[in-house]
Design goal:
Chain lengths: 399, 399
């Protein structure tokens, strides 16, 4: 079923066996999964995926799980794409779309990475997984680990969202709150990994999460009948999603399944935490640590991503760009999209609405272009951002 | 596309035109949508649905929307079914399944009713819809009305869950909090309907919501390759879901698409609000108003349902039963399912875990029977029920 052939270092090109447990390359860079694309080209018809049972494991040939019995699924993937007619009219785009990842289990796109990551951990016989998290990844990995019967150790900042703490707790993960930032939580996990031999599943420290995220790209390509749209906007924190989508598109190109140009990949950040935007504007290969990182969109409050150089590569090679928006614009966009399109999305996703508006105004995006916004989660996980003021009526009132 | 022929009173059998706006029958009972099943039998192959784009509107021949351009969709329906291996082992069922409605837009099965209800309102040219709600229906109808560009007036108890208030608010509904119960909210809406001519979309006062809920039954039948399972457990408040599933199964039977026996439909309530269980046990045709109704599962805190007689009919005709569980069992079940199966479900859904356990113990359900639990929503909407107590670490700690 899978055409997984080996792991390859994203920096030095070193190769590792697909049958062993690996984290980073000896050189310290993330490993990427490589497939026998020649064999897929010969044996697989791209139209076969559509007829299979829904969910991201439809794309099993391009995923690293080798035996179907190891698949751990909670119904992730195959999220809907909607054309945003009203918003498109308002900002001047005739073909504006949103892919809504909020309909994944645990309410975010993190479910994709967790589904593939936990399934592969099961296949490799791993007993305990450990990870630091800002919140949503902890919820997702907790759910899949619970289903798989794998122990999960999670450390998150003590000021992480309540809902993230509650998710990790109810799924039964060994969860610790750390009086510090996610980087401090990461250090505690790294020590535990050394001491106890846990499998380290921190962002990009294990090679399989990207493969789960990659399926967003496969689904977008399939949605447009195996043609690439012109641009994809993506809220960028750790950047695994954008790296995954880029990887999907390169694989599809190599397979010869798509002939037109890979979309411009557009990384969107908040003004309060904009390391990728800065590095892009300053033509640097990697980002610098963003001091005092601060934004209401917690999922993109990542001061320095391990895979920053991969994100910057993807943005540049695809002729994309990087854009920052204000927190006040995020809140405005959240409200706008709910009222115009009936979609209550995550603040990370809402950055894209403000960004696409800017990019049309400054001419980077043209009226006829097919543009996709990738919303990463459900607004239900961010209820604290909605400040309702509703009128109260006595029981004998009239409206 | 639709084979909608007329509306029929569920009590007196009076018929009404499918082309006009109708609420209740003159006799005060709910109206049901009737289709030209003979024509469907002749023209439609049951295997055609599977090949269509996912979502409940796949079943368009058995839905009341007549012109595709009126469909208002946010990605509802086609929710996953999982086999509960660990839970099944624990309680002694070899074929225990759950259908997880938490993956619908707005996080609950209410999205199904809203999708069909709002689409049909659009088709009928309705400008303003009004409804009382305990919470989740208000959120769902707000989202779909926003997308449709139809005005929605919502009244809910001032002590409704915060998240429900925030949903109605962010989607831009005209939302009022009422210093009283849902019945008081209902009275204020009823007065507004008379005064302003709004379309009344209170539970069972409009005929189309049931049709949306019906698709849960169609999906279950299709999932089991057009064979009925042996039993379905359903958390019962207003009862629209169980009435809808029953209606789906009767239609499938009449179409000749399924040959085996309709499943036992099992209504599950909480001890603090058990009018259907009482009426069932006392062999009554309708329920009595449950004074001081009280349960942590807000969606089934319905003291007297307008369609109670239909629920009781469905349970009795299908040789099902009615079961009540304690609130403490609901919390235990929530925790059990999250840890064993990676599913954080709504408290309404959790009633079913406790109930199925009882029904196996007392012999009503047998080890080999195919049993489906219908979870109505995501636990993310009920975070207040999770009381996390997590250890806090200093930044230089070891685990």
């Amino acid at each position: 079923m899978s055409y997984f052939s080996y792991l390859e270092c994203s920096k030095c090109g070193n190769k590792y066996s697909s049958k062993e447990v690996h984290n980073l390359c000896e050189c310290g860079a993330p490993l990427l999964v490589r497939y026998d694309l020649e064999a897929i080209k010969k044996n697989v018809d791209k139209n076969v995926f559509k007829g299979r049972e829904k969910g991201l494991f439809r794309f099993k040939e391009l995923l690293p799980v080798e035996d179907e019995k190891n698949i751990v699924t909670l119904g992730e993937g195959d999220t809907p794409v909607f054309k945003l007619e009203k918003l498109g009219d308002k900002i001047g785009l005739k073909n504006l779309y949103i892919k809504d990842e909020g309909l994944n289990p645990t309410g975010t796109f993190k479910a994709r990475g967790a589904a593939v990551g936990v399934s592969k951990a099961k296949e490799l016989g791993i007993k305990t997984i450990a990870m630091p998290t800002a919140g949503n990844a902890g919820g997702a990995w907790s759910a899949y680990s619970a289903k798989a019967g794998i122990e999960l150790v999670v450390a998150m900042p003590y000021d992480a969202p309540d809902l993230a703490k509650k998710e990790a707790y109810i799924y039964g993960s060994k969860t610790y709150l750390v009086k510090g930032l996610i980087s401090d939580a990461g250090k505690i996990i790294a020590k535990g990994v050394k001491k106890h031999g846990w499998f380290d599943a921190a962002t990009l420290k294990e090679p399989y999460r990207i493969e789960g995220k990659k399926t967003m790209g496969l689904e977008i390509a399939e949605y447009f009948n195996w043609e690439f749209p012109d641009a994809i906007l993506y809220p960028t924190g750790g950047g695994v999603g954008i790296i995954g989508i880029w990887k999907a598109f390169k694989e599809l190109e190599e397979l010869g399944w798509i002939k037109n140009k890979i979309p411009k990949l557009i990384a969107v950040q908040s003004e309060g935490c904009n390391p990728i935007v800065k590095a892009f504007n300053e033509d640097k290969e990697a980002s610098e640590f963003c001091e005092d990182a601060n934004t209401i969109a917690g999922g993109i409050r990542v001061p320095k991503a391990l895979g920053d150089f991969l994100v910057l590569d993807a943005v540049r090679e695809s002729k994309g760009t990087a854009v920052e928006v204000k927190d006040s614009e995020i809140i405005e966009s959240l409200n706008l999209l709910a009222k115009a399109e009936g979609l209550f999305i995550a603040p990370e996703g809402a950055t894209l609405v403000a960004a696409v508006n800017k990019l049309v105004k400054d001419g980077f995006l043209k009226e006829e272009e097919k543009v996709v916004l990738l919303n990463t989660g459900s607004g239900l996980k961010y209820a604290n951002l909605v400040d309702e003021k509703l009128p109260i009526l006595e029981i004998d009132s009239d409206i």
